[in-house]
């Protein structure tokens, strides 16, 4: 019946209006999909009728009050009545009347076309309602395929209410209040949306409703299948859609329809299929909750969907809320329970949704829902150039490209080969009469042909040639001018017809050599009788050893009708577990009228199980599209439509592509994969790289013949070129060969060449089609640099329009190509900190961020107070994961430094981690439970014994925690840790800075934060205790001043432990070597300066280390000096007194007594050298006037006079006399002169020193230490002394002198009484003659000849010297004295007579190398003699010691020493 025959306006008031009967369906295909189609026109009619009924019911009351006549007057009478009818009723009536009129005027042709193209509800409403949203039709669905009312209403409003031209639709988030108001207006039983609603609000309401569902639209059950379908969307999406519940499928269809409409206008709204998929995928698919609630897994959309479908029923309780019930609060509460997809799952769902939007037919069922009619954008990307000279034969019947050539068959039976310049390279004789079809086997490089040997179909023959042999023979034949075509024996040959294979017109040819072994060859020949004959053979067997054999016949006749002619054949393959053999392909022959052939394509990706593996043959007849599984010859009807022209079939991407007048259809081996609407009467189809060329019949309305050639990019929805061809399509031939694309029509060959990609992109940029330019570049295989440039230009375009978020989305795809400073500078100017943060995050995730980028990103985080992202950035190694929609993440506050003295500090660090503090606290608690860490040491001084017990030290185990030894968890950071640490500290995020320091393994950074930012001294000490000994020493050296000021006792105890050798008690055998890190011992001297205001703790530290060390501690000399200075100090007052130092500070004398003990300990009698610096100790003792120390040190150094000087300076007479008695005894090796100095000191004193002098005189007299005269002269210097003091001493000395004189006189008298001879014998022996018996003259005579020889030699030397000074010297040597070689200039001559080549001498040689040693010896002798003459004392010493003095005199005289 006519769809317009039942207008809504003709329905009686209040009458029940039923849906019009659906048109009779077409013949049911053999498919598992048997759902009735969704008829949008029928839905439109039903809505119009219901709308008219409601209008009449609502206006009944007003009509009855005005009278029956007034009610029938029409809308004009109601308006004239002065408002007797409400305005809304009048508006609804006008809308209903308009709908009825449009429905009546819609003819059967439009209705039939809508069934084929399956235009969506929203699109149909848009066309039929003339642009006005029809909110009243939201409930107009068919019971057989329901759709939620709100989805239909929102999609209708978006498509027809300006949503297509709204930028960033589905991405922009409008104010929540606006969405809430819109949801309230749409909460009635009719789900009405107010006219003029904001498209952004409508899109947000739709997304809110989807998120509020108890189960996602794609269902939990099918989620794994949706994810798996991303690998092969063309093959698998339709099956998953078919498995959806009816309500889900209907909602998904309407949603995808609206998204496809938005995608069409992507140039205006900047929302292409990918952007829409990214926005909608999280709303229709999410993970099941951890604890699924009852009823969440019901069929379809649950009870809420049933409520939405029911007329006027209240919505079901427990739903997600939103416009369907439950309110916005309930919906938001449910949305918070949604577990979003992440990672690969989310990417897979986005890819599937993008495919469904781009190929809307994927959402539909096999029947009833056809593809949306997309509008193709038209461009001129190809230019036409006529080929004036070519070798294409005018009588061509078939052609195929392969092996770098184009093979063209003719009606004369020859095969012509064309090169890339379309010139004939030769011809071969193929058949006796005519070539029918050609096909190319790619893997084996074989040419397969079917032709006639003589007129009549019975002579049809199948032949196979090697492509290389064929080309070589053709080239050889063309070398001879005007020679006949070459004759090449085929590799295989077979008769097409036999008794079992009846004769019929050959209509198609296909070949496949893609077998697992690579040797099998399968050929299919289609005939007009509705069958396909199969031939198989072994292509690897040598020539003449094998044949092509008949392998079977496939019947392709339909069950009814006579349209069974086979117009096209094509092989496809499905392999399991491994890819198809390389080069495997299938060929599809065209119709006989077109004479074309299509070369093979690769195998299709398998989508089924083992039962679908193997080889398939697609057969396209006039009425059907079928697929045969060759293993068992099982037949599958893919579509109840075929093609009338065999040239309209090709293989594309493993799918069978069929061109019909309404669209391009794609088929797998078991179902239809999708279609692309493209109107026009098709006469040919083929592939050219990424393009599909179409030959269309452009017959003029007047009936004039015409043909058109179009190159379309199906994926990008564009027409790259359109060209008119002369004559009818049957007379035109489109060629795809090595030279590209060409067309033969009207006796001319025209070549079509694609313009450069840069020119194409520039044209698209001018029209702001950046998304299309990007897709085009990707399809052309552009490199990353070019793609990044397109993204950059797209980003600049969006930036200029003020869409900063969209611009940033494009700039993110330029990482690694576009200079980051360009993007950063733009967004710094615009103050778009959120977009800038997003870019910097991606820069770090890509590993391309520098220190400045890290600084900027962390500053962005701190300015945004986004602690959640800050945590994710630090813990995630430089990749921030947003922690929710908020900026600060669940109300967290930034971490601020704690006041000094407080433990902890950054309380908001939370997720950023406080592992350092935790470990330090545990170590401190372990030390408290385990007792004093230094308890194993010898007892420390009482002042710090308790502090040492409380010191937070870690146990001495190999598992000691250290940031350098225990690597922090998580991935390696992609940012500069030092930069991040500095920025976080400066911003006050101490907890995060601590986490960065921990990841970097830098103890210095950790301590900086703990001490300077947090003031956590206890945790800092505990952390130091966990470090290695060398790290502890370095940390205490850097932070010791601060730690000693805050915790002096604990810090001192830690230093005590560090300054003692490890390994138990001193001297223990288990101590590690000191050169290792574990055996490191610190020197107290390095830390003494830290105790400037804590001298008492330093005193205890030095005493503990010095008195308890088993051996010499490090820095022992400095340790002695420090301790001595502390002992001699006038006072020791700590800054925190009163304390342990108060007691010591009150006993300075006790410390001075310890000073002498210290000096004596460091310089014991058995020690050659002291353990301390004696000079420095002397300075300290003299500075502090410490006499015992001076005396001890001078005594050790044997400086006895200095000891006396010390006692003299101190005025200690008793000590002075005692020192003189100790050091002035000659019998003990002493110096008696000390007594004279002591006497001088006593005499010089102004006080009464008579008793002391008396004691000195007694000691001097007893030991006879000083001469009496010296004593008396010294005492005479003091005029105050009494004579009585020395009277006794003088008298005793005089008596002793008188006795000595008498003794001497007695000795003299005794000697004088001896005889004279005795006195002569006592004469000196040196005065006697040594040889009195030998006369002197005789001795002189013996020495006369030697003297005369010496005189002669001396005279000769004098003469020679005079000759050298006065006469020239002639050098006559001819050879070098050093090498013996002939002399060659330059030459050096010496006065000694030797000559040398200059190269034989050294650089600075100025003496003859042969004579120099002797001359040097003589000079040395003379120098020694002169030196001896200058030492007369040596002569006299030798003379006195020699037994014979004359020999000494003679020797010196002979050597010239006596003058």
How would you describe this structure to a colleague?
- This protein has 53 helices and 34 strands.
- It is elongated and about 185 Å long.
- The N terminus is likely disordered.
- Helices cover 42% and strands 13% of the residues.
- Helix 8 packs parallel to helix 13.
- The strands form nine sheets. The chain has a five-stranded mixed β-sheet, with no helix packed on it. Strands 3-4-5-6-10 form a five-stranded mixed β-sheet.
- It is α+β, with helices and mostly antiparallel strands.
- The protein starts with 39 loop residues before the first helix and ends in a 5-residue tail after the last helix.
- The relative contact order is 0.03.
- The longest helix has 29 residues.
In short:
This protein has 1459 residues and is α+β, with helices and mostly antiparallel strands. The protein contains 53 helices and 34 strands. The longest helix has 29 residues, at 1284-1312.
């Amino acid at each position: 019946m006519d769809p317009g025959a039942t207008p809504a306006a003709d329905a009686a008031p209040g009458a029940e209006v039923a849906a019009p009967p659906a048109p009779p369906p077409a013949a049911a295909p053999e498919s598992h999909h048997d759902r009735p189609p969704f008829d949008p026109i029928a839905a439109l009619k039903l809505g119009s009728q219901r709308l008219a009924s409601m209008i009449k019911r609502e206006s009944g009351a007003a009509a009855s009050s005005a009278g029956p006549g007034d009610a029938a007057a029409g809308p004009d009478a109601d308006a004239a009545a002065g408002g007797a009818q409400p305005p809304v009723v009048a508006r609804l009536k006008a809308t209903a009347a308009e709908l009825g009129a449009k429905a009546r005027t819609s003819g059967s042709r439009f209705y039939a076309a809508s069934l084929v193209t399956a235009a969506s509800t929203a699109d149909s409403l848009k066309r039929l309602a003339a642009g006005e949203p029809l909110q009243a039709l939201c409930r107009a669905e068919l019971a057989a395929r329901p759709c939620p009312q709100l989805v239909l209403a929102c999609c209708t409003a978006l498509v027809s209410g300006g949503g297509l031209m709204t930028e960033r639709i589905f991405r922009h988030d409008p104010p929540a209040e606006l969405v809430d108001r819109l949801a309230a207006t749409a909460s009635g039983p009719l789900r009405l949306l107010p006219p003029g609603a904001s498209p952004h609000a409508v899109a947000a309401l739709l997304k809110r409703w989807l998120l509020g569902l108890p189960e996602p639209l794609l269902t939990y059950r099918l989620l794994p299948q949706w994810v798996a379908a991303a690998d092969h969307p063309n093959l698998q999406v339709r099956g998953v859609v078919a498995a959806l519940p009816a309500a889900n499928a209907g909602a998904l269809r309407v949603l995808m329809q609206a998204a496809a409409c938005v995608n069409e206008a992507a140039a205006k709204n900047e929302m292409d299929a990918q952007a829409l998929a990214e926005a909608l995928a999280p709303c229709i698919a999410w993970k099941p909750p951890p604890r699924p609630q009852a009823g969440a897994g019901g069929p379809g959309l649950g009870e809420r969907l049933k409520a939405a479908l029911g007329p006027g029923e209240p919505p079901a309780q427990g739903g997600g809320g939103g416009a369907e019930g439950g309110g916005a609060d309930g919906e938001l509460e449910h949305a918070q329970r949604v577990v979003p997809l992440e990672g690969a799952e989310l990417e897979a769902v986005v890819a599937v949704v993008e495919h469904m939007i781009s190929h809307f037919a994927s959402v539909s069922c096999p029947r009833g829902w056809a593809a949306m009619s997309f509008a193709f954008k038209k461009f001129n990307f190809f230019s036409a150039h006529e080929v004036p000279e070519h070798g294409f034969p005018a009588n061509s019947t078939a052609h195929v490209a392969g092996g770098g050539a184009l093979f063209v068959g003719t009606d004369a039976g020859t095969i012509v080969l064309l090169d890339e310049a379309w010139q004939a390279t030769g011809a071969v004789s193929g058949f006796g009469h005519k070539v029918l079809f050609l096909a190319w086997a790619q893997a084996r490089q074989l040419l397969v042909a079917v032709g006639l040997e003589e007129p009549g179909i019975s002579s049809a023959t199948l032949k196979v040639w090697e492509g290389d042999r064929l080309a070589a023979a053709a080239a050889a034949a063309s070398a001879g001018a005007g020679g006949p075509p070459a004759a090449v024996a085929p590799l295989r040959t077979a008769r097409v017809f036999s008794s079992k294979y009846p004769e019929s017109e050959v209509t198609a040819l296909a070949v496949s050599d893609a077998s697992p072994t690579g040797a099998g060859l399968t050929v299919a020949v289609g005939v007009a009788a509705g069958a396909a004959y199969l031939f198989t053979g072994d292509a690897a067997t040598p020539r003449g050893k094998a044949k092509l054999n008949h392998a079977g016949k496939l019947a392709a006749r339909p069950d009814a009708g006579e349209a069974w002619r086979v117009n096209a054949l094509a092989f496809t393959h499905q392999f399991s577990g491994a890819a198809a053999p390389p080069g495997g392909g299938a060929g599809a022959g065209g119709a006989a009228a077109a004479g074309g052939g299509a070369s093979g394509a690769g195998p299709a990706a398998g989508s089924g199980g083992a039962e679908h593996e193997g080889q398939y043959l697609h057969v396209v007849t006039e009425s059907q599209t079928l697929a045969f599984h060759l293993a068992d010859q099982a037949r599958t009807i893919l579509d109840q439509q075929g093609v009338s022209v065999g040239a309209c079939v090709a293989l594309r991407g493993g799918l069978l592509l069929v061109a019909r007048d309404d669209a391009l259809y794609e088929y797998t081996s078991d179902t239809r994969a999708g279609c692309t609407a493209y109107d026009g009467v098709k006469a040919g189809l083929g592939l050219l790289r990424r393009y599909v060329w179409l030959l269309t019949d452009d017959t003029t309305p007047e009936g004039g013949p015409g043909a058109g050639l179009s190159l379309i990019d199906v994926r990008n929805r564009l027409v790259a070129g359109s060209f008119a061809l002369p004559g009818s399509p049957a007379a035109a031939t489109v060629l795809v060969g090595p030279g590209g694309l060409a067309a033969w029509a009207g006796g001319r060959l025209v070549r079509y060449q694609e313009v450069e990609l840069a020119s194409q992109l520039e044209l698209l940029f001018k029209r702001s089609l950046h998304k299309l330019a990007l897709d085009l570049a990707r399809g052309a295989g552009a490199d990353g640099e070019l793609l990044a440039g397109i993204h950059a230009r797209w980003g600049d375009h969006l930036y200029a329009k003020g869409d900063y978020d969209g611009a940033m989305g494009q700039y993110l795809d330029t990482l690694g190509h576009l200079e980051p400073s360009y993007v950063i500078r733009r967004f710094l100017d615009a103050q778009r900190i959120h977009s800038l943060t997003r870019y910097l995050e991606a820069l770090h995730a890509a590993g391309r961020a520098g220190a400045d980028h890290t600084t900027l990103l962390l500053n962005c985080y701190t300015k945004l107070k986004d602690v959640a992202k800050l945590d994710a950035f630090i813990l995630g190694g430089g990749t921030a994961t947003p922690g929710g929609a908020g900026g600060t993440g669940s109300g967290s506050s930034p971490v601020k430094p704690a006041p000094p003295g407080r433990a902890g500090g950054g309380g908001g660090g939370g997720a950023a981690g406080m592992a350092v503090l935790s470990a330090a606290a545990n170590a401190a608690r372990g030390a408290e439970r385990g007792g004093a860490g230094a308890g194993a040491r010898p007892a420390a001084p009482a002042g710090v014994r308790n502090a040492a017990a409380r010191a937070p030290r870690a146990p001495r185990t190999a598992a000691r925690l250290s940031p350098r030894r225990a690597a922090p968890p998580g991935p390696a950071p992609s940012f500069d840790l030092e930069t991040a640490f500095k920025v976080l500290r400066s911003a006050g995020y101490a907890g995060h800075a601590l986490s960065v320091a921990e990841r970097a393994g830098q103890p210095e950074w950790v301590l900086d934060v703990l001490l300077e930012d947090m003031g956590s001294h206890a945790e800092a000490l505990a952390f130091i205790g966990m470090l290695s000994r060398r790290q502890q020493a370095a940390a205490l050296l850097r932070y010791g001043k601060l730690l000693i000021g805050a915790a002096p006792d604990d810090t001192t105890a830690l230093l005590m432990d560090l300054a003692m050798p490890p390994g138990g008690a001193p001297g223990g055998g288990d101590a590690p070597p000191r050169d290792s890190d574990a055996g490191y011992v610190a020197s107290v001297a390095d830390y003494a300066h830290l105790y400037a205001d804590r001298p008492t703790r330093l005193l205890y530290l030095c005493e503990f280390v010095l008195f308890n060390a088993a051996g010499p501690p490090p820095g022992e000399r400095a340790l002695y000096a420090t301790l001595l200075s502390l002992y001699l100090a006038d006072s020791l007052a700590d800054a925190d007194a009163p304390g342990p130092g108060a007691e010591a500070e009150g006993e300075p004398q006790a410390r001075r007594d310890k000073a002498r003990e210290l000096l004596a300990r460091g310089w014991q009698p058995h020690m050659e050298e002291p353990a301390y610096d004696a000079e420095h100790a002397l300075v300290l003792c003299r500075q502090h006037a410490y006499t015992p120390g001076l005396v001890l040190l001078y005594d050790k150094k044997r400086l006895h006079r200095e000891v006396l000087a010390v006692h003299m300076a101190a005025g200690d007479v008793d000590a002075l006399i005692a020192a003189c008695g100790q050091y002035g005894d000659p019998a003990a090796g002493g110096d008696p002169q000390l007594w004279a100095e002591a006497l001088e000191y006593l005499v010089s004193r102004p006080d009464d020193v008579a008793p002391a002098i008396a004691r000195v005189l007694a000691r001097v007299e007893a030991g006879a230490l000083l001469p009496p005269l010296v004593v008396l002269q010294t005492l005479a210097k003091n005029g105050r002394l009494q004579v009585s003091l020395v009277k006794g001493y003088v008298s005793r000395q005089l008596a002793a002198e008188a006795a000595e004189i008498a003794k001497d006189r007695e000795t003299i008298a005794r000697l004088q009484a001896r005889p004279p001879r005795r006195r002569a014998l006592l004469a000196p022996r040196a005065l006697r003659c040594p040889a009195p018996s030998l006369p002197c003259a005789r001795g002189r005579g013996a020495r006369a000849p030697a003297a005369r020889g010496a005189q002669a030699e001396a005279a000769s030397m004098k003469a020679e010297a005079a000759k050298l000074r006065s006469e020239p010297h002639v050098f006559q040597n001819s050879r070098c004295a050093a090498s013996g070689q002939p002399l060659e200039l330059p030459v050096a001559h010496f006065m000694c007579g030797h000559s040398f080549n200059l190269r034989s001498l050294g650089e600075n040689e100025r003496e003859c190398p042969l004579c120099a040693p002797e001359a040097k010896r003589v000079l040395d002798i003379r120098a020694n003699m002169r030196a001896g003459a200058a030492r007369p004392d040596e002569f006299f010493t030798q003379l006195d010691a020699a037994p014979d003095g004359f020999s000494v005199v003679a020797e010196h005289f002979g050597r010239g020493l006596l003058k």
